[in-house]
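Known limitations

Files may contain more than one protein. Parsers should not assume a single record per file. Below, a two-record file is shown to illustrate correct handling: read the sequence, read the token line, then continue until end of file.
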Amino acid sequence: MALSFSVINTRMTPVWDFGWFDLTRFKVDGPATERQDCYHVLAEFLRAPISQRSFCDPGQWGESIQRHGPFLCERLAVMWFRPITTEQLADRIRAALDDPEFTVPPNNEQRQPVEGWAAAVKARGDDAFALEAPDLAEIKVDWAFVWIVYHEFLSISSDREELTIGVIGYD
């Protein structure tokens, strides 16, 4: 029996002038034996139609657009999601928000949802991952240049009953 996923909640908050933080929590349903391995949960999620979504022009999860952010779904690989510690998650988020390329950094109110999520991941003891896709044109949609910034992180709860995706983007 395959795992199934349903959206618990999703929200997008502004960061910078045209930047955003998109956070979506998913319920993971299926036998506990199928949920033991994080990479199996992640692979099942990426195979499921619900994993399709454009973050640049956010629609509903699973809208049959054949892409996940700037990536073609057929090319997206589970091994691109590298395990990271919760400290590394916080560091990577901080680095993205403090990027010196931005003349006006996000204010404390804009940072709070992003940094708060990283703190919650650590407090719960979730497994954290960072999407580190190869920089190849053939894995991206034609208009991938729209994403000036795209950092995707994922967490899976220790009981493997919840998967969360957090994306920091700028378009």
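...continuing to the second record:
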Amino acid sequence: MNKTILCGMDPGKEGFISAFDGENYTFYEMPTHKIETGDLLKSGKPQTKTQFYIHGLAELAKQIKKDFKGCNFVAAIEEVGGRGGWSATNNFNFGHTAGLQRMIFEYLDAEIIMVRPQKWQSVIRREYDLIKVPSSSGKTMVVDSKAMAEHIATTEFPNIDFRKTERAKKNHDGKIDSFLVLQYLIRTYKK
């Protein structure tokens, strides 16, 4: 019987994939590359910005398949809809990117479970007091989901580095969210 690898994915340009083989965790950053914006810096050099790299997805899928050769995959992907306050273009681009990223797990012939943020967060937050901050109006308090996620991840898994790179000073939201989506899958998946 082939080994089953459980994966969690936080989609988006800044997203991550977290994988668990039963003993170890492996993290995969979404592929990006730099493109010129058309503007120049004060130094005269072209200004660049980081952009999601569609062609890198195929290489990422191949790398995951190589890292877990002969294994089966089960993936929980955060199911995020349109976001209020975003333009139609931003919502379309996010949905397009998330759909392309799902293809990684289609390529791996994974069992795919789409999970709403509220669902995985309710399972992960079960034992924790909510961290609240003032709303934008300042009249009410709202849950700070990013602070909650970071607190839970670093409390339960203090030996895991949640920074994007070794040079980064802060933990990375996408890496933490993909890891907690994976923890949701570990706690709820029934073979």
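Parsers that stop after the first record will miss the second one. For reference, the second record is described as follows. DSSP finds five helices and nine strands in the chain.
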